[in-house]
Amino acid sequence: MAQPTQIERALGDRLRARLPHSVSELIMFVVKMGWAALFGGLLLIAMMITHKLWQDDWPIARYDALLAYALSLQILFLVFRLETVGEAKVILLFHLTGTVMEIFKLHMGSWDYPGAGLIKIGGVPLFSGFMYASVGSFMARAIRLFDMRFAPYPPYWASLLFAGAIYLNFFTHHFGPDIRLGLFVASLLLYARTRVWYRIGGWYWMPMPLAGVLSAFFLWVAENVGTATKIWLYSGQVPGELVHFSKMGSWYLLLYVSFVTVTLVQRDALSPVPFRPDPKSDPKSDRATS
C-alpha cells in the first residue's frame, strides 16, 4: 500500500490536532483531490487565461500555444515523478483514442473548434487530446494518492468488453440504434457491488457507480469552462450557454473507458473479493460514505 508523504502526514497531523476529525478529513480529501486533478486544473487555468489575453494577430495561434503548454506540463510531470512512465504510456493511449473520437465527432457535426491553429488532424486541434489525457492523469494519480481499492471487482474481461461497447457506441449510434440506456443499466449490473475504497487518515468507501456520477458532474463543470472560453462549441450551442445536462451521461460512460484504460497498469488496485481494511493500521478505519 502507498504510504503518505511527509508533507501529507505533517498537514494531516496539524489539521487533526486543531480541528474535529470529520472536518480535518474533509479538508485533506479536498486537498488530495485537487492535487490529483493538477494536470486538468492547470489546463483549465490556461484556457481561461488565453481566452482573456490571446489576440488573433499574435504569431502563434491559441490552440498551438495550448498544445505547447500541455506538452510542457506532461514533460514536467514525468521529470518530477508526478506520473510514472507506465502511467504516461496508458494516458497516451487514452489521448489517442480520444483524438480519434474527436475527429469522427467533428466530421459528424457534433461539435466544432471555432479557433485557428496550424497543428490539427482532421480539423481537430492536437491539443484536444490532452483534455482526455487529463482525465486519465487524474484517475491514475487519485488511485495512488488515495491508495484506492476497487472491490469486489467484476471479471476483468467483462470490464474490457463493457468499455469497448461504450467506446464503439459513441461511433455506431450515428448509423444505428443508440444503446446507451442499456449501457447505463449494464454499469449498474456490473459494478453495483463494487466499492471504491480510499484512504485519507482512515478508510472510507462509496459505491463505484456513485463515484462515476459525481465525477461526471465535475467533468460537466469543466466542459462549461471549455465552451465558455471558446475552446469548442457543441452543435447549436450559443456562446455563453451552459452545456446540456445530458452530456453528464456521456461522461459517465466515458469514465469507464478511461478507468479500464488506466487499470492496464494499475491492476493491483482491483480485487475480485471484498476488501477489508486492516484495523491495526487505523483503529478508526471502518467508516463508510455512501
Automatic annotation (TrEMBL):
It comes from the Bacteria. The lineage of its organism: Bacteria, Pseudomonadati, Pseudomonadota, Alphaproteobacteria, Rhodobacterales. This is Uncharacterized membrane protein YoaT, DUF817 family. Pfam families: DUF817 (PF05675). The keyword Lipid biosynthesis does not apply. It comes from Celeribacter baekdonensis. Keywords: Membrane, Transmembrane, Transmembrane helix. The chain crosses the membrane at residues 26-49, 61-80, 92-111, 117-138, 150-168, 203-222, 242-265.
